[in-house]
Write a structure and sequence with these properties.
The chain has 381 residues and is of the alpha+beta class. The chain has 3 domains: 126 residues, no CATH class; 105 residues, T-fold, CATH 1.10.3980.10; 129 residues, ApbE-like domains (T-fold, Roll), CATH 3.10.520.10. It is 26% helix and 29% strand. The chain contains 9 helices and 20 strands. It has a 10-stranded mixed sheet with strand order 1-2-3-7-8-13-16-17-18-20, with helices on one face.
Length: 381
């Protein structure tokens, strides 16, 4: 496991006991770095005053590890990291990637279930989502620094050679024995599109079991989950400390401007969300440009090049957490027409499609979307 840079549970509110709060809540924010090669942010609102309970335990403030009631979050992230980290030779998935081409490898039920779901979405989309795309992503090396650090286009021969390893049909699973076999050396699975939703679901279930009725969980920059309804700062203070109240209204979720990385906190539109997962896919953050052409991190596995269609971003909201990132990637690859057709055929999912022409298309069940800035046109299909 990579070094944990920071595991902090920042207690932003202190003051009264829950009996003195008249239903008001404390706000807590947890930040976890380097699990599953991403950063997880958790904001919750709770009626317990954990600052008072734990303030004398350490000299430099209350850390998440000191709050016994929520230590299970770190356990979930660590367990998931040790199973699903595709970039480690020590994780269960890393070992599978190293040896599954030699002979079928028996894996844990947890890993097997995620692989089976990944292959289901790959088959359903005819490879628009492909969990074996990792070697191609490694070849191009596009990440969140590429837009200012730049990048290079691999040679045609390098792309063609790498495509030999990118094919979900070369992953063979055996339900009876819970084994996985790769038909070719060099094939590797990366389950990020499935696992983030699964981990988010586990965190949600854990938090609600601890009495958390309001909050937001972000796993990486693309996956988000709301718990309950929106909390806002109340007029009640304890010294300089603000307490929060549950409004009973949906959370207001924003769509960042995909054309302005410096204005990520200034949404171009907002929409209500209650107890749903949200996934964002597109070329707005991980890309580089050469001669006015944008090259990004979502690939067409048939050509080996970044997907080239009219879309810059899609946002998918779903009742189901597992697979939400896979589906958002899938519909981005499919493009506006096919992506919209797919979403309209699936219950419990709706999406926003944003084009390079600054047109915003919403599926029929996506209620309450409002544009908050000029320059964009809201359309319907």
């Amino acid at each position: 496991m990579k070094k944990i840079i920071s595991i902090m549970f920042l207690l932003l509110l202190v003051g009264c006991s829950k009996d003195e709060n008249d239903g008001l809540l404390y706000k807590y924010v947890g930040i976890y770095d380097e699990y599953l090669n991403t950063t997880t942010y958790i904001t919750i609102y709770h009626n317990e005053n954990y600052y008072t309970k734990y303030e004398n335990k350490v000299d430099d403030g209350v850390k998440f590890s000191d709050i016994v009631e929520f230590q299970g979050i770190e356990d979930i992230l660590l367990e998931s990291h040790n199973v699903f980290d595709a970039h480690s030779n020590e994780s269960e998935l890393g070992k599978l990637n190293n040896f599954a081409h030699i002979a079928p490898v028996k894996v844990s039920e947890e890993l097997y279930d995620m692989i089976k779901q990944a292959l289901y979405f790959a088959e359903t989309s005819d490879g628009a989502y492909d969990p074996t795309v990792g070697p191609l992503a490694d070849l191009w090396g596009i990440d969140e620094t590429s837009w200012f650090m730049g990048g290079t286009i691999p040679s045609e021969s390098a792309i063609n050679d790498t495509l030999e390893f990118v094919d979900y049909k070369k992953v063979i699973i055996d339900d009876a024995n819970k084994t996985v076999f790769y038909e070719q050396e060099g094939v590797k699975l990366d389950l990020g599109g499935i696992v983030k939703g699964y981990v988010t679901e586990r965190i949600r279930d854990y938090l609600t079991s601890k009495g958390v009725n309001n909050g937001i969980v972000n796993v990486g920059s693309s996956s988000q989950l709301t718990i309950g309804t929106r909390c806002v700062a109340s007029e009640e203070l304890n010294g300089e400390v603000t307490l929060y109240e549950d409004t009973g209204n949906p959370w207001n979720i924003g769509t960042s401007d995909p054309f302005d990385l410096w204005a990520m906190n200034d949404p171009i539109g907002v929409f209500p969300l209650v107890d749903k997962a949200l996934s964002t896919s597109g070329s707005a953050l991980q890309f580089f440009e050469i001669d006015g052409e944008r090259y990004h991190h979502i690939f067409d596995t048939k050509t080996g090049y970044p997907v080239d269609n009219e879309l810059i971003v899609v946002q998918l909201q779903s009742d189901n957490l597992v697979g939400v990132d896979a589906v958002s990637t899938m519909i981005y690859v499919l493009g506006l027409e096919e992506g919209m057709e797919y979403i309209e055929s699936i219950d419990g999912m709706d999406a926003i499609f944003i084009t390079y022409d600054k047109e915003i298309y919403i599926s029929s069940g996506f209620d309450g979307y409002k544009i908050t800035t000029g320059g964009y046109d809201l359309k319907t299909k």
